[in-house]
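Appendix B. Raw example, untouched.
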Amino acid sequence: MAQRTWRWAGLVGLSMALVSTQALAQRDPPPPAGASTPVTAPAGTGQSALSLFVKTEAAATSIQGCAKAACAPADYKPLAFSSGPIPPSDPSKARLTVLSIGQGRHLIRVELGDKASAWEALIAAPVNGAGEPLVIWSGRIPDIASGEAEAGGKVEVSEADGGTVKVLVGEVRREMSLCGRPTLLSPRVVDPADLTLKAVKMQRLSREERDRADKLGAVRVASPQPAPLSRLLVATGASSAIGSPSFVTDGNPDTSWSEARGGEGRGEFVTMRAPSEVSIASFTIAIRPEKHEVDGGVSPKRFWLATTDKLFEVTMPEDGWATAGARYTIRPPAPLQTSCVALVLDDAFPSKDPKKVAVTVSELTAYSEFDGQTDLAGLVGALAGGGPRAQSAAALLMRGGEASHKAVVDGFDKLDDSGKLLAMGIIDGAACSASSRFFAPRLAAGNKHEREHARDRIRRCGRASAPALMDAMASGTAEQRWAAVDELAAIDPSAAIEHLGPMLATADTKTRASIRALLARATGQPRSMSALGKLLDDPSLPSVVSVDLLRSAGAHLDAVKLPAGAAFARLSRGQLDTRMRYLLCEPAARIASQGDTRGVGFLIERLGQDPEPMIRARAAEVSHGIAAMQPYLITALEDDNMRVRDAATAALAESDAASIYLVRRLMIDPWPQVRGRAAESLARTGKSADADRELTASLTREEYPRVRARIAAALGARGVLSAAPALQARVDDPEEELNVRIKSVFALGRVCDRSAIDLLTVLARRAADPYARESANEMGIAAIAALGRLHPADLAARLGPVAEGQRTPRHVRGAARAALKETDICQNVTSLPVQK
């Protein structure tokens, strides 16, 4: 009842302080257009009256003021603000409040804008009774709660004695609060004596919350307490400090934090982060450091412990400064679960020298329910099951440092799957040098989640994981070695090349293929080139290793041109067996493409003189695009072996100079494979009337359907419009194989044959029938694509029944709609009206 009476009286007092002065305010004539109603603070002791209004004109807001009893419109002048221009505001929503601040003096608080653009000013009439209005403070008031700003100014008004108010100005920061309670930092109060801002000490906790706080007594600890299993509290900041706030939770009995405002330090605080998953059973506080002396240090007599939802008033049983290193236990009535703890000073024991007072705390330690009940090994065992108790144990182990990490590693294999999941999260917090040694062998774990977690951690650690991966390669199982080398190739390709290269000497065929794949992956990264060059320069490496290195590097050999050329020169000397001659063809082509004459010479010799057709064919195959090899490839078109001719024909694709020789292969080669390859290569060469003519003739003459299909595709690729009748004949021939007909339909679109539009329309519409034969369906889709390429003006009418038909199969409808949007189209194509 007493508390309710006090609160009601306080509210009434504050209201009277705000209202009574407004009742005394003199009202001026109605405001000008675009302005708020003027508000006047009455004259007081040594202070004239003050009248203000807010005005917005041409998107510019100003505050007009007049510091005398009766103001005419001409007496109002715009005020200047050192904080910068006033943000544009609606004067009708301006809040101007007259505040009585004591000693018979007043000021006007101006509040403009909403939360997103709030701006305030404190303005008073001068104390000497004459002169311009005095701007005590002004500035933006950012919306810290919404996260839009990290810090900013704030004005607070609270009740004072005699029906007056106390006006405070300070700073608020989003990361600095009393565990969620808004907190004014570096507060200054408006001094009514001279209307200036002066630093002030204040209790940040409200009286209402302090009145209902639980009262606790600190108890002197008789014997030394063991250290907690892990450090639960981590200091994050302080309202003021002599020494770092982090000293309060660093576990060092010789460091300390002292408030920096002097006196009893009332209201000064330290905030600390805590794990919300862990229940805090008790606190231990040490006041005076064991050895370090603090100038003017005194012990708090009473202080507050605040959490996110509770407040405790703690009273010391004695002067904690009397005994260095003395510790006191504080036990809440029930375990606390909170993400924040704040220590707030209140009263202090007297100092020997009142001029030197620094209220000090050496250490505040939190203990969990596990402390004193188990050790780290037992805490690891508590991870099993994954329930709330396991989560609490995990939160403790995450904060336990190296000792906790070692305990988790030692006990990992004894845990169930839920416990292992938590344990891996704990080990994630270890340094990469330690965690990667745990995770590297688990890259080959049987549990999929365990493998994926290990891979993710190894990759996040990057090159710091390389030593652990190399250890796994040296001593792990076969599965662990391959998993480790696979990751090493990605995160440290240089190390991977250095370790993988020598392994080629003793590996079997299957293993060498795997190593080459990994080397190819590693050499694809620029930072691996130095390691590759170093190995290629090593003449002591077995030839099988060097040739596989050259093969693995592939297109990246240009980055190690000199060592690659030197290695190739060593390998290509003397009498080479069949395997070596075959394997060297690809690296020879790589260096030949860079202008290396040794590579060109090797390919010429292999293509023209090698007794093995397999090697001649390989030399032809890899010579594609090498200008120096073109005459020799043309010669190889006459090779006795079909596979050599086929490889040479493929290698001459895109060679305009070889077009006539490819036509010859198309005409006379006895093998369908070579004739078909010649058609494919001609599809990629430049303009040639001979090629167009022979391809058109071969479409009818060719005996094998597979070759005819490739010829039809080549005619389309070359855009041979003169071949349209022959292509239409293939489409219309019911005896022709389906693949030839489909390729011919596509080709009609590629050659832009407008005479085929009606034929293609018929074929397209047949595909709309859900019961049509599969052949009609495939022909129809090809016809739709051809029509999309031809794109006649009436295409929508032709494909409308297909694109919009309710019974049209979904894939056919999709093809029709894509054709209507086709952009790769023939130019100037018209058609006859659609035949119904």
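End of appendix B.
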